[in-house]
Amino acid sequence: MNRIIAGLLAASLGFNSPALADEAPVVVELFTSQGCSSCPPVDALIAELAKRDDVIPLALHVDYWDYIGWKDVFADPSFTRRQKAYARAAGARSIYTPQLVVGGVDHVVGYRPMVLAQLIETHRDTERPVHLSMVREGADVIITARSERTFDEDVVLQVVRFRPEEVVEIKRGENAGRTLSYANVVEAWKAVARWNGAEPLSVTVDDTEGKPIAVIVQRPGPGAIIAAAQLR
């Protein structure tokens, strides 16, 4: 049993797992909702993954369950649109919560820690042609990217801002009466540059609030994520 599978199984049983150092972290996006009774176990997996260095887990709260009695306080219509774009790219007819997207290409519906762990391991072994670095300088973050080759189609550099931890008391809906913890709650996801990889890329973004930030280089579609980094 590899270390990632062991770690996720430990997480599913409520144990902590050590972080693994890695220069090419795997991005795991969770589409979730506070109004979804099936989501809390997967929300908890994201919290465990957030302790690691080899994974960048990001929780995107969608708004399409708000009508059933509880309005998700983190929901953003743009996250619903992102999930629908993934579905179109995959040729899928439906979207779900909880739904995970690993590396921009592999979809996992529901609470399936073994499948998730195996996909993370697979993506960790994937060749990464792009090297990212990030550094804070005063009220800015300077992002630098270089590629070992050019791309047939421009890739997209995206900046993701997220909250490390939030606790919410759910008063109505399927999770009424529960107090739930959430990790790496995405506040904003913004494309900041398109890039063909021919020359090194340098982008400066505002960091006045000093919150955690992730940078993702992704093929359009949305497609495969070919590089990622974070500053906590």
Automatic annotation (TrEMBL):
Pfam families, per the entry: DUF1223
Top-level taxon of the source organism: Bacteria
UniProt KW RNA-binding keyword: no
UniProt entry keywords in alphabetical sequence: Signal
Signal peptide: 1-21
InterPro entries: DUF1223, Thioredoxin-like_sf
Name of the protein in its database record: Secreted protein
Organism: Rhodovulum bhavnagarense
